[in-house]
Amino acid sequence: MTVTAKNLVWGAQRKTIVNNVSLDVAEGETLGLIGPNGSGKSSLLRLLSGLRAPLSGRVEILGQDIARVSRKTLARQLAFVQQNATTDTNVSVRDVVRLGRTPHRSALAGWTAADEAAVSAALERVEMAGRRAQAWQTLSGGERQRVHIARALAQSPRVMFLDEPTNHLDIHHQIEILRMVRRLDVTSVVALHDLNLAATFCDRIVVLQAGAVVACGTPAGVLTPPLLRDVFQVEAEVTFEPQTARPHIRFRAA
Ligand SMILES: Nc1ncnc2c1ncn2[C@@H]1O[C@H](COP(=O)(O)OP(=O)(O)OP(=O)(O)O)[C@@H](O)[C@H]1O
Known about the structure:
Elements: E1 3-12, E2 15-25, E3 30-34, H1 41-48, E4 56-61, E5 64-65, H2 71-77, E6 78-81, H3 93-98, H4 113-125, H5 141-154, E7 159-163, H6 171-183, E8 187-191, H7 195-201, E9 204-209, E10 212-217, H8 219-222, H9 225-232, E11 236-240, E12 247-251
Parallel strand pairs: 3-8, 3-9, 6-7, 7-8
Antiparallel strand pairs: 1-2, 1-4, 4-5, 9-10, 11-12
The structure holds adenosine-5'-triphosphate (ATP).
Adenosine-5'-triphosphate binds next to helix 1.
């Protein structure tokens, strides 16, 4: 397994926010993380990426307990695209993406051709190559999101954690970003609100409710009308796409 979480518990202000979560993510897999607002998706991603330490339990990435791995080593292995990430305002798009190369550079080495190639490839992938010189502060919300994804790609990680990466994106870029994540030779865990996007692009889905895993499996196995009713309190019909056999959810207005 590339990512393994065992019995993760985390909380704040006497409230348990991540409640005994265990999960495994296989190499190259795209695992979707879904659940209502406040169910603990972002908190779990922070634990999985080592940004926050659990109260108990542990996370292994590429077979190593992340509590015992240096920050620099971890930064070479994993990238985290956070929700509403901010960046210093007085920089260009290219500068932001260049930051992704930091874990791969030593104090003495200069900027290499490999660094430049990684930055250019990342900008191409999110369709922002033409904007490399533009000032960060002048970008739209969706463009900023794509540049943050490019920074993560420039990091050349083995594992990516993405917290609602389609936030702010138009439908073309939502699909492009998730298609890219799925095709990358990278293991990824991605928190999503759009259940049909999760159904279309994830290999498996984990459902969180009040900090606990209440379902885990293929999109077809997980996204059933009873689960949608229990967890999301919506009435829905689920049909299956003829070509892919993936579920498609139609929500009932009343
Ligand atoms: N540092 C903290 N102190 C107190 N409460 C917190 C803290 N961090 C998160 N919470 C609470 O924990 C719960 C889970 O938050 P989290 O952001 O992980 O949920 P989420 O599933 O990502 O939500 P959303 O879908 O709305 O983004 C929320 O009720 C939140 O208010």
